[in-house]
């Protein structure tokens, strides 16, 4: 949420640039485009929340990956269109 500058639920190139600079590891635009491509498999110009979680989990956490897979199967309703609603810290699980 901190780096989703446009409140679309995804991290775009400028949001990623801000995140990397805040972490003290500035990257060029080309490096960031490559990072996004690696995370998304080259199918998107932005990193979705699910892609971000999968990237952070890596290959080490099979249990958390199963939970994410289960959550994906539980999502049977279509995704809402438009920006996500405003949320605060108290509303997070």
Word description of this protein:
It is found in: Cell projection, Ruffle membrane. Keywords: Calcium, Metal-binding, Repeat. Pfam families: AIF-1 (PF21008). InterPro entries: AIF-1_EF_pair (IPR049025), AIF1/AIF1L (IPR042433), EF-hand-dom_pair (IPR011992), EF_hand_dom (IPR002048). This is Allograft inflammatory factor 1 like. The chain has helices spanning 13-22, 29-40, 49-57, 62-74; strands at 10-11, 47-48. 47% of the residues lie in helices and 4% in strands. The longest helix is centred in the last third of the chain and has 13 residues, at 62-74. With 93 residues, it is mostly helical. The two termini are 14 Å apart. The model has no long low-confidence stretch (mean pLDDT 77). The protein has a two-stranded antiparallel sheet.
Strand content: under 5%
Strand order of the largest sheet: 1-2
Shape: globular
The overall pLDDT average reads: 77
Biggest pleated-sheet summary: 2 strands, antiparallel
**Oligomeric assembly:** single chain
SSE order, one letter for each helix or strand: EHHEHH
Number of helices: 4
Alpha-carbon Rg, integer: 14 Å
What is the end-to-end distance? 14 Å
Strand runs, count: 2
Structural class: mainly alpha
Helical content, roughly?
A: 40-55%
Low-confidence stretches: none
């Amino acid at each position: 949420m901190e780096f989703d500058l446009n409140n679309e639920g995804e991290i775009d190139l400028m949001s990623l640039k801000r995140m990397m600079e805040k972490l003290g590891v500035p990257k060029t635009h080309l490096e960031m485009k490559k990072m996004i491509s690696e995370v998304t498999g080259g199918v998107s110009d932005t990193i979705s929340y699910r892609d971000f979680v999968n990237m952070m989990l890596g290959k080490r956490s099979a249990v958390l990956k199963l939970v994410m897979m289960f959550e994906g199967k539980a999502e049977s309703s279509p995704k809402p269109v438009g920006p996500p609603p405003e949320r605060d810290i108290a509303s997070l699980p």
